[in-house]
Amino acid sequence: MDGLPTNILPSPCDGRTSTPAEIRRGLLASLPIALSMVPAGLVLGAQAAQKGFSLLEVPLLAGLNFAGGSEFAAVGLWASPPPVLLIMAITFLVNSRHILMGAALAPAIQHLPRRKALPVLFLMCDESWVMGLSDARRRSEAGHSPGFSLPYYLAVSLAFYVTWVACTTLGGWLGPVLGDLRTYGLDMAFPAIFLVLLRGLWKGARAARPWLVSLVVAALVYLFVPGGWYVVAGALSGLMAAWLLAEAER
């Protein structure tokens, strides 16, 4: 079946859908993924608290950046005094994937005015990006124009945002009591649900060849090069592979 499993992403509603109906659809679709953010948020908040972050600084970390991977990297590098330039560089490297994600999302939101497009991009995380693109594609195939549903996307994204900030704050509060939550394997919930979501973008093994190249290169760089360079290496190698394969098929 094309697209995400129906228990993860409900089918698009018909052309008569209203804004409240699209918001409800987005909230329902976001529920299982938002639940998966709870343990990851608790882990991040607990780690931040153990590094000396206050209960005000933890939600600021989660809310202003809103990119889980770079937040974990920043907390992991935190020291006294903090290596600010190193943390900034690693944050940029880890978040550089958002450049490619934004470029992929741009065609779907090009009809939006800037005052609406900017919140869409700010709230974009890995999960909302996958769900937004998958839903837009499904709606376009069903004859909707435009395929991108702004109320649906904002409902999904805001549910993720609120859940993430709230759970990191809760983790920061409970962190000194709970200790290292990674010993329970809770930090694996987030990557696991994202792998399930990627199913919605699957178009066959042939189209996935650049993904494979990106995966292999990123894994090799991760093993042999310190720092966050594996993110950039994986992204650039995937782009290069996609370009070379497209040229070869012309």
TrEMBL record:
Q: Does the keyword Transport apply?
A: yes
Q: What is the superkingdom listed in this entry's lineage?
A: Bacteria
Transmembrane feature ranges? 27-46, 152-175, 181-201, 208-224
Tell me the Pfam families matching this sequence: AzlC (PF03591)
The UniProt entry lists membrane topology as:
Multi-pass membrane protein
- UniProt main location, coarse: membrane
What keywords does the record list, in alphabetical order? Cell membrane, Membrane, Transmembrane, Transmembrane helix, Transport
So what family is this one in? Belongs to the AzlC family.
Read off the PANTHER family from this record. INNER MEMBRANE PROTEIN YGAZ
In Swiss-Prot or TrEMBL terms, this protein is called AzlC family ABC transporter permease
Q: Which organism is it from?
A: Pseudoroseomonas ludipueritiae
Lineage in the entry?
Bacteria, Pseudomonadati, Pseudomonadota, Alphaproteobacteria, Acetobacterales
